[in-house]
Structure prediction request, 182 residues.
Amino acid sequence: MNCPGCFLYALPKAIQLHETYHKKGLVVIGLATAFEDYDKNTLGNLQRLVETGEVIGETLKALTRHGMLSDGKLEWRLPFAVGMDRVLPDTEPVTPERTLHYARECLPEFDGFVEDKKHATLNQVRNYLQRKTMKAETFERFSLKGTPSSILFDRKGHVQDVSFGQLESQEPLIRECLASAD
Prediction:
């Protein structure tokens, strides 16, 4: 909801993918999720978006700057189902093990850092985890790196790809999944 890149790039691409491939079996589901700004990434704001095209926060500012709103609202609607990620309190203790795991998960090159950089990075990660009071279930379960992100499942429900950023790189994999289902 508060991700300009989602509205500028990812959602238009998701709509294009839906329009191109839904008759071949692609099912696109939009999921509002968050790793911050939990006060803006709410079910109420998602409902307003779906029902009226109203956007909020940084998205509103960016789309206004790009001239993409009419009377403060989107000129297009989402042609696929949308849902809201479940946000839960993050009560997991911040241990050295959790801090190290999170650093390695987010920074695959972490183990190659020099010791001073490892130490500084672990301090930053620990501070972040100590301030983090909420977590979005899907965001955490699939180790998403930010928004926009996408998760591609095959027809059997197996994860084929988890991507952060634009969806262009997924289109060949989508075509491959659809072809293998025929």
